[in-house]
Amino acid sequence: MQTQFDLIVIGAGPGGYIAAIRAAQLGLSVACIDAWSNAKGGPAPGGTCTNVGCIPSKALLQSSEHYEHAGHGFAEHGIDVAGLKLDLPRMLARKEQVVRQNNEGILYLFKKNKVQFVHGRASFAAKLDAGFEVDVTGPESKRLTAKQVIIATGSSPRALPDAAFDEKLILSNTGALALGEVPKRLGVIGAGVIGLEMGSVWRRLGAQVTVLEALPDFLGAADAQVAKEALKQFKKQGLDIQLGVKIAGVKAGAKVVNVRYADAQGAEQTLTVDRLIVSIGRVPNTEGLNLGAVGLSTDARGFVPVDHDCKTPVPGIWAIGDVVRGPMLAHKAEEEGVAVAERIQGQKPHVDFNTVPWVIYTAPEIAWVGQTEQQLKAAGRAYKAGSFPFLANGRARALGDTTGFVKMLSDAATDEILGVHIIGPMASELIAEAAVAMEFKAAAEDIARICHAHPTLSEAMKEAALACDGRSLNF
Ligand code: FAD
Ligand code: NAI
């Protein structure tokens, strides 16, 4: 087997596998090393996203939403479902099958693009005159060399001090996606993206869910109006979300977990649950990479330091995705992967962090791109705001899902779109129009003048654009 390459990519998550494919498309000889194994010990490329992140969580969100609709939502459509029963093993097996299809899809793409995939754990061995030596241990142990290296090793869940993940009672995202039965009482620490998505899955399947969040504000990164509506909807669904708490200790017994905490008023409380998900953010994966062998070290927060172009301080070594600064999102990792591959070939791509969309796949879905209203106010920027509720959208009424709104923010003088915030049906798909518009520096009026098909949810985007000039037609 070939051992010398133009480029080695460490990690086959969305950052690494996409970087490897793009580099190969551009004519480089590429090896991509990944440590993830499936249940049979075989390779499982795709990283956190494919194996225990984006893909399995969306599979379970879909299945659990079907279950909830069958139980509650279908009746208003005149569909009575008698004898509704949850087959959790089958639901989990489907999720696993979706994951496997994605693993296999990536292996196929490697073959198609002539990327050499190596299954094992990589660590730097040495810096050479013109390149680097990388050792692989595991299923395929070997030493490889390359002129350039991309570190795309991703991130791992952050544990609470003194409450290690056992994946039986105290769960990270990995355990939260594979519970063998629906817990009666589920605790979630951290009301971030994972807490809300996984809390929603298990609530829909029958768990009584309590979410404990340290910050006093709910979803602080989202537009405040969206966050307020989201909190109202989640509480209405039965998620018990407590803000401003301080966790004092977590103790797992034989069958239950006790969480001691001070509530927002400072009163001491104990929450007893059958399972506890801890979703308080993630930490970059650099352990075992032996960065010192090539003269690299991590920054104070454990990330591999990079400039805007994903260059590390060591020429020839790049880093992308969750292991570097910026949002921990699969599509951000992918964009950085493509950009680095193109930079290695002398091209000058650009990744605009301001147009990276955010999506939370709860019901209602939440999605945004660009600046929030509170950010514009803090920056002293003069802006116009236009909102349109799904209640006034014909398609949303036909769907029977009229929660939420689209809100557009545009510059007061130039009308350039500065941010779009959506809570409601298919927000995850609708946000793409806003990202495209912002990439093209469109004005709200540009969207307002584009013909949108009727009846579609996308008409709410057009109406929000019209509302920026106070001229909504349907509200
Ligand atoms: P990763 O996907 O973490 O991949 C890194 C890979 O490198 C892994 O396969 C790992 O095994 C491998 N690796 C690490 N060290 C080594 C080594 N030394 N040698 C060899 N291989 C190594 N993002 C979204 O955009 N949308 C979502 O819907 C979404 N949902 C999520 C749901 C959950 C539950 C979680 C946990 C995350 C979710 N994310 C989502 C975030 C997303 O998964 C990450 O941002 C994304 O996976 C980061 O990609 P990456 O390529 O940087 O790293
Ligand atoms: P997060 O950063 O989204 O949320 C963590 C939450 O935990 C925050 O609200 C934080 O204030 C809170 N917290 C931190 N310490 C705490 C403590 N001691 N006690 C109580 N609360 C505490 O992180 P999360 O949910 O773990 O997800 C990690 C990353 O994965 C996210 O940043 C996101 O980028 C990515 N992700 C993306 C998804 C998507 O795009 N739909 C889905 C899931 C994850």
TrEMBL record:
Query: A GO CC term?
Result: cytoplasm
Q: Cite the Pyridine nucleotide-disulphide oxidoreductase dimerisation domain residue spans from the record.
A: 356-465
According to the record, cofactor stoichiometry and binding are noted as:
Binds 1 FAD per subunit.
User: Which is an annotated Pfam family here?
Assistant: Pyr_redox_dim
Q: Locate the active site.
A: H454
Which Gene Ontology BP terms does the record give? 2-oxoglutarate metabolic process
Cite the InterPro entries for this sequence: Class-I_Pyr_Nuc-Dis_Oxidored, FAD/NAD-bd_sf, FAD/NAD-binding_dom, FAD/NAD-linked_Rdtase_dimer_sf, Lipoamide_DH, Pyr_nuc-diS_OxRdtase, Pyr_nucl-diS_OxRdtase_dimer
Disulphide bonds annotated for this chain are: C49-C54
State where FAD binds. Answer: K58, T153, G154, S155, D322, M328, L329, A330, H331
Protein's name in the database: Dihydrolipoyl dehydrogenase
Originating gene:
lpd
